[in-house]
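Inverse folding, one chain.
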């Protein structure tokens, strides 16, 4: 990339001129290239908070020494400790050679007359000037500490930021209004999803749907235990559709949001706008559909919305913690429609996949630039928190926060001191549940895995199924395999029967609470 020569770009005299830009703006092309690289490596909040306020102060072309300007000592120190290696790598890629990075600190200019002049100039530019000139003006505003205050200035700021992040025409940015209207999390993309044996089939199906909405599989029903990435997977479809099918509309809602919208529409007698809003969406994603159970009015409206969308050739995507057949209190006509398309099951990730998830998270948040990620620590976390990715990432956040705030090393010693696990403690497993249930009912563990259908064994076996499902979040096929290669439908029947009995049997509920606590205590 060639460096610009001569005076920095200035605004045309036909509009109110901006203040003279500092020398760093002469390197705006180089700096925008660095920002483009870093924006793909870091999360949006980290990038905007720590990298965006920086600017190039000078560049010695002979020695390839780059001096970056930070707005404060705190800004400089944090970026130097966390992101310097990434910045050096980005510069080296663009300049085709290793660089030396130096730092200076300069407080941003905060004079109100300059703010007003630059704000007015860029507001005019947004509608009249070439896109690159608007980019330069927006950079000047950031370098000078300008903050948007009026609605017009905030609109200009949003437009320019989206253009800077997405120079390719027709490619939507993270934080664009379309993504905000679709309720999509900017981090839930296919690029940020770790694919392993536990979700490979779901990922392949999701990619096919994203490329050809309403053609590949419609509806698409994803089920699995909590914290396994169902929401991430379906929202990734939404991001892909917005990026590659700009004419399509996308909407992600939870079942609770859908229900609340319906209640509000009924209360205000605005059912027609409600139906029009939901039935014109090209890709509708509804999360946690299991919460429709017992809501008759919502189920009726969902039935008609489903029919309208499906008949119009719109894509429908649903998630649940159970397959359609296991949603016992859902109307049969809804269950049959949910089974029209493709049903995919997200399994619990294996240890290697959980480690890969932690590594990707560390890279995304810039932690690999500060800490040496000892493999045994990542494996320790992966084995200690095996059943829920959210719980696993929460533990990783807690450990990394302790290391940063207390300047501790990312080591086994720190991890064990934080979580308080001794060498004698072991993670909860299917075998531990089986043994605890067998002991509680005074039966042989092998008998629970055998084919004997005696009444006392059948009841104990159903309790075992229920506890494994609730505590370990295991899939029904996996439970069936552990309990003597029983069929998925047999395990599902036992689980649902136990749930029905618990609803009206206080004594049984108390027994299960006692048993569950005994199972948990066996870990310690």
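Residues assigned per position:
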């Amino acid at each position: 990339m060639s460096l610009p020569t001569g005076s920095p770009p200035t605004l045309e005299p036909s509009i109110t001129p901006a203040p003279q830009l500092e020398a760093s703006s002469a390197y705006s092309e180089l700096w925008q290239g660095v920002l483009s690289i870093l924006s793909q490596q870091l999360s949006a909040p980290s990038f905007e908070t720590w990298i965006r306020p920086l600017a190039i102060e000078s560049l010695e072309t002979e020695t390839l020494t780059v001096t970056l300007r930070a707005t404060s000592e705190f800004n400089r120190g944090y970026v130097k400790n966390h992101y310097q290696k990434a910045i050096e790598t980005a510069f080296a890629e663009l300049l085709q050679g290793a660089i030396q990075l130096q730092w200076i600190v300069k407080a941003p200019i905060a004079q109100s007359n300059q703010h007003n002049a630059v704000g007015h100039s860029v507001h005019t530019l947004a509608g009249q000037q070439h896109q690159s000139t608007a980019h330069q003006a927006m950079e000047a505003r950031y370098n000078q500490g300008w903050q948007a205050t009026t609605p017009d200035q905030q609109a200009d700021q949003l437009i320019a930021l989206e253009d800077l992040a997405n120079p390719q025409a027709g490619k939507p940015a993270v934080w664009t209004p379309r993504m905000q209207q679709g309720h999509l999390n900017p981090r839930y993309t296919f690029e940020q999803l770790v694919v392993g044996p536990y979700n490979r089939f779901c990922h392949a199906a999701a990619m096919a749907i994203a490329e050809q909405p309403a053609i590949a599989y419609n509806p698409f029903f994803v089920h699995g235990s909590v914290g396994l990435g169902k929401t991430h997977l379906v929202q990734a479809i939404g991001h892909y559709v917005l990026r590659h099918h700009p004419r399509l509309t996308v909407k992600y809602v939870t079942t609770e949001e859908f229900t609340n919208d319906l209640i509000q529409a009924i209360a205000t007698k605005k059912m027609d706008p409600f139906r029009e809003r939901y039935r014109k969406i090209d890709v509708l994603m509804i999360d946690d559909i299991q919460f429709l159970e017992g809501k008759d009015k919502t189920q009726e409206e969902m039935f008609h919305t489903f029919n309208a969308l499906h008949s119009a050739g719109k894509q429908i995507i649903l998630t649940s913690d159970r397959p359609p057949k296991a949603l016992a209190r859902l109307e049969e006509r809804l269950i049959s429609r949910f089974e029209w398309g493709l049903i995919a099951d997200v399994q619990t990730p294996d240890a290697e996949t959980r480690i890969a998830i932690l590594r990707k998270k560390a890279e995304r948040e810039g932690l690999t630039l500060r800490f040496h990620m000892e493999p045994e620590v990542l494996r320790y976390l992966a084995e200690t928190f095996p059943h829920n990715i959210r719980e696993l990432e929460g533990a990783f956040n807690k450990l990394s926060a302790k290391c940063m705030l207390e300047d501790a090393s990312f080591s086994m010693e720190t991890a064990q001191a934080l979580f308080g696990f001794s060498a004698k403690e072991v993670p909860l497993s299917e075998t531990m549940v089986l043994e605890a249930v067998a002991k509680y009912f005074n039966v042989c563990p092998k008998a629970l895995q055998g084919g004997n259908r005696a009444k006392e064994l059948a009841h104990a076996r159903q309790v075992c199924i229920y506890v494994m499902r609730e505590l370990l979040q295991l899939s029904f096929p996996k439970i069936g395999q552990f309990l003597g290669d029983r069929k998925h439908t047999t395990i599902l029947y036992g689980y649902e029967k136990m749930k029905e009995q618990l609803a009206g049997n206080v004594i049984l509920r108390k027994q299960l609470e006692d048993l569950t606590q005994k199972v948990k205590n066996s870990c310690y």
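Residues 23-165 form a domain with the GMP Synthetase; Chain A, domain 3 fold (CATH 3.30.300.180). Confidence is low (pLDDT under 50) at residues 1-25, 109-148, 150-174.
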